[in-house]
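Dear colleague,

Thank you for sharing your sequence with our group. We've completed the structure prediction you requested, and as agreed, I am returning the results in plain text so they can be pasted directly into your records. Please verify that the sequence below matches your submission; if there's any discrepancy, let me know and we will rerun it promptly.
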Amino acid sequence: TQPIDILIEPWWLLNVGMITDDDIKLLSNQEKELIDFVIDSEKPVEAGQLNFECIHLLYKKGLIYLDVPLNESDFVEVPPLEGFVMNRVMGDYFETLLYKLFVSIDDRTSLGELANLLEIDIDLVLNAVSLYCRLSFAKKKFKQP
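Please find the predicted structure tokens below.
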């Protein structure tokens, strides 16, 4: 009935969901200010720029949602997943796509290269890997300075 707890990375982007006047009445001043800031921003707002506790509260209330921005030059890694089991259903296109990507990802191949190797549309790859990041199945690799 409400979103699960997730680890929100500082580089994820905040978006405002469907907010009613009744929702606003139930918010703290800090939550209202954060919502107003995101609405008034001309560019997407990174989660790391704002109060994480407030972001989590609004996320749990379903008033904001998160984008995990990835591009074809990004690299991701899949940490060991203990006790993870993936049951595949035959004929489900999206599940087949997710599985194909999941078993093929490595931290030395960019997402664009992976899309080319597997002959999959880059937008599908970016959306699927974005989902993996939101579920903490994958992590974006950042280049060391």
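Summary note from our side: The radius of gyration is 17 Å.

Kind regards,
the structure core
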